[in-house]
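RECORD TYPE: inverse folding
INPUT: structure tokens
STRUCTURE:
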């Protein structure tokens, strides 16, 4: 399974077209970053509409966000907390990177049990994803970089239901950054738009060395 995922990453790396070659020879090798993502596929496969729940959750309207969390009726979703490491290098004259990502997200739901004196019950689901990635830079300047990236890896989630029964399951997870841009030399900020298990919209900070 792991070898298949690595082959997939390499294939994606070579088929993404290069729009602009890098103009800058400054290429820090290591990069660590942290970001928050909103609208991940953990919320009922929001873009594909193929979640397990009977009621599918659409792409989140902004009015449903409160204090960086998403509220949908009696459900509350945290953003996806993503920690990443990238190793940058050149493939010929083309700047590319391989990376590893850990992501965490949580869903909570409350309800009132009218059969038991209106007692409040709650359940929660915790998602943990680990992914490898391949990144390509159509534009690589010292202070401004534009990139696309493909991720694939292993996801696991734990569901604590209303009866305190713990259920867990594993799955293959993926993510595609369709457009990413970063500003800064060593310390930098960045924003991304994509689809998958890290969030449709992502924003964060990082450090290169």
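DESIGNED SEQUENCE:
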């Amino acid at each position: 399974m792991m070898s298949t995922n690595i082959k997939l990453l390499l294939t994606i790396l070579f088929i993404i077209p290069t729009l602009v070659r890098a103009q800058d020879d400054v290429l820090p090798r290591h990069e660590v970053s942290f970001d928050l993502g909103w609208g991940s596929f953990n919320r009922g496969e929001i873009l594909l509409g193929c979640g397990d729940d009977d009621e599918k959750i659409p792409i989140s309207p902004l009015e449903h966000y409160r204090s960086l969390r998403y509220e949908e009726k009696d459900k509350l979703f945290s953003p996806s907390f993503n920690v990443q490491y990238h190793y940058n290098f050149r493939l010929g004259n083309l700047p590319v990177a391989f990376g590893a990502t850990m992501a965490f997200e949580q869903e909570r739901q409350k309800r009132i049990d009218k059969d038991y004196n209106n007692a409040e019950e709650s359940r929660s689901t915790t998602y943990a994803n680990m992914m490898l990635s391949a990144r390509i830079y159509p534009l690589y300047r010292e202070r401004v970089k534009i990139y696309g990236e493909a991720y694939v890896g292993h996801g696991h989630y734990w569901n604590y239901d209303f009866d305190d029964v713990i259920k867990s399951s594993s799955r293959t997870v993926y993510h595609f950054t369709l457009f990413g841009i970063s500003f800064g030399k060593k310390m930098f900020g960045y924003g991304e738009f994509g689809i998958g298990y890290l969030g449709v919209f992502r924003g964060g900070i990082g450090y290169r060395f």
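NOTES: The helical segments are 2-15.
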